[in-house]
């Protein structure tokens, strides 16, 4: 594990200018790092602690990037909530809460500390190992797919507004029109059911084999629970929940009272809408019951 020796911790703790912080817990973790909580922890060389961690990203007095891992999750949660409300909050973890200090940042940070050199990796003699760097999202892949799902969850109303419910045809209607069996088609839109183009995304999900595969794998989660954090449930307006599920090469974002969107590694930039149909509501309800939720 990079930067776990006392020298690295001391270097990071010496006048660390905190820039931001994120939670690394089963219910809330930077999904760009992995499809589930254990995978995200492994990306940082951390054991998947049951209570999770807080990640404090900052610069030392020389401008070097450091990620300080602490076990005081509630402290980081309070800081994030305060910042989100536009309030000032000085995040100063007790040194007893520090688990380790990792050189570099695992996430992209757009700001820098004033009055110190520009952000850079710590020198090797101080870092104690390779510096963390954000995953490359310049090309489509797993990391960018998960970031796309994050955006849809965050901007649900905007994405949902691009879908006309009339574009979703019932399975029986499609079967009658095509003479085919509706089996395996339930819950998918016809060829017109697309979210349009936004940020380079947009694709049709009508009869999409990849979507059927994803829904089948998501159903399997109900009987055989996946690694912790692959299914997460968070707040949504009304009595609904925002549901997020990930798997090998795919992500689902859904509202329990509405439709779902599917993103695939092998569909660069594609966002595939899935209509409710007769099966999707039950699937979402079952996944929500097994999902981990923020405390």
Automatic annotation (TrEMBL):
Residue ranges, annotated region (Disordered): 116-138, 171-208
Comp. bias regions, Pro residues: 116-125
Stretches with biased composition (Gly residues): 196-208
Protein name in UniProt: Integral membrane protein
